[in-house]
Amino acid sequence: MMPVFLAQLAKDRRSPALIILFIVGSVLATVLFTGGTQAPVTVQIFSEEEQTEEIEAKWEQLLNQEGNMEFVVTEEEEARDNVRQGRSDLAIKLFEDDYEIVTSSNLPTVQYVDQHVRTVFEREARIQVATEEASNPEELRQEIKSQLEDPLFAMEVESTTGEELSAHDMGIQLMYAFTLLVAMFIIGFRVNNVSKDKVDCIWDRVILSPVGKTSMYTGYIAYAFFIGFVQTVIVLMVFNYVLQYDLGERFDLLVVVVAVFTFSMVSIAMLFTGIVKGPEQFYALYPSVIPLIPLISGAYMMPGTITHPVMTFIGDLFPVSHAIEAMIGVTLYDATWQDITQPIIIMILIGVVSMGIGINLVERRRG
Amino acid sequence: MLETVQLTKAFKGKTVVDEVELYLDQGESVGLLGPNGAGKSTTISMISSLLKPTSGDVKLNQKSTIKNPVDLRKVLGVVPQEIALYEELSAYENLKFFGRIYRVPKSELESRIQDTLEIVGLKERQKDLIKTFSGGMKRRVNIATALLHNPKILILDEPTVGIDPQSRNYILEMVRQLNEQKGTTVLYTSHYMEEVEQLCNRVYIMDHGKVIAKGTKSELLSILSNEDTISVQPNRIDEEFLAAVKEIEGVRKVEVSGEEINIIAKKASNIVSELVNVGERHQVQILNFQMENPSLENVFLHLTGRTLRD
Ligand SMILES: Nc1ncnc2c1ncn2[C@@H]1O[C@H](COP(=O)(O)OP(=O)(O)O)[C@@H](O)[C@H]1O
Ligand SMILES: [Mg+2]
Fold this sequence. Notes:
The complex is a heterodimer. Chain A is 67% helix and 6% strand. By secondary structure, chain A is mainly alpha-helical.
């Protein structure tokens, strides 16, 4: 196993351009598509109503109460200028009980901020309605507030479009989606070396050597796993430590998810290798099929956007949707070991089954 | 030492190797000669335990190797017809990889690599990537790879295909030295009869999956002992003329190659004067003719009515 592993490593060491390109690529893609925004975002707020100061003070306090954004009261002129000249993505104009977003872009940040602000405004509106006719509005307000925060019945607040109104961070989700997508490419190309070397007759030499077939496969699989895992962890570390993204408290759990995902994906790639006619066909088909998987898994969209049962079924057959689910759980919802057990078990199952079938098919293809 | 017994391989019902029997004695250099598609590579794959025979056996020192090829693989060095190397790695890295998988002990690996590079004459280029090598150099590394574990038997499958004459001579000389000086037993496959003639003590000739002749060079040539080979150059060749030549008394085989006609005929038949007569009758002028020293090429022609290059 070791010599096979080392030979693969030597090849990548000699021309690491591809790996480096992929690492840089997945970071760049994420930063580009998510607008490079990560918390804490500073949003300038202002008002032009009559009781400007009163309104500004009220909402500044409410908006800053939770979430990882910072809302700062600014002069109207200045806020508008900043948006116009691209110094900030957006500003918010406040009314008594409504708001307007001042922006010229369509970045995910805008939606992200909008979501947060809307939640705050809607909650406030409810409280307002409820307390209007009460004899002791202040007391009731406290009561409602504590109830909302610690509800007797778990209640899901939904907006008109049916989206969950929790602060779901599309930026983080896209980051994971791109990172795993790039990993799928690397893993696939490395697993494909199995059939490339087979066609090049290098296999025959290995078979004639005292190295058994099992340890030969293990060598290729171990290497594909190694390179996929290392490159994904490096990308996550860049996000976490260099770009200061907030990936949650449990980086260790993320690493576990990445490891299981990588194993599962190596197996899928092996299955793919077994199905296609040869390494050339693999190069032609794999890169066009792989990007579809996160797409139908809904990795690029808000959760719940894809509801077609066939689509979700197909998406669930691949590890990427389960991995993203687990990673988002860890990052945004403080998931623990127990919470990610299910996606992990599913990924392992996918891995074991497709590895078995894949190796069998690759074996059968030799005359 | 190594022998095959009724070795047969069929792919989807099509028999491509048909009851082939051949043997190798220790220290011998044996040639396997045949045109493309004769079944040489398939035979070799079965001998080297890469391919399971449909029927028949491969024996090493009287023991079947089909069930348990471990002993065979230890003493075998196989040079495949294709260049089986990592193009992206250097010659040295390739040899290191194959040395490792062939379990050359760590302490000897470095010296074995250098020795082998010396044998194939690529010591100076060892740090260069295979993909920068010429065809002949790749072939040499391809051979070097099979020598790392000091095999007792070396099987080479057309190791000189598509390379320049200089590299070709180098390889032939190299194989000869391995055989003569180190006592390595050699099975050499080729469709170039000159190579086999030059290198091998004994020759098997294969065609359509069958061994159609075997023996030492002189034994094979004696097949032709009561025949002459005549090469004729007429000013033009037409079907009627050829048909008439075939009718001449004593003519066994007629074969056109380019502008020449090769004729095999019984010795001492009055073929030459007849030929001139036939030519006159068909308005064909004989520009030149030559009695040839018989070669293995002629033996093949005699046996099959075709040339090896067909
Ligand atoms: N795996 C295979 N499947 C089907 N036919 C094959 C296979 N390998 C070789 N053949 C056929 O067997 C014949 C002999 O091939 P081969 O042994 O390569 O001949 P040679 O090495 O003498 O040129 C050819 O007709 C070839 O097409
Ligand atoms: Mg061949």
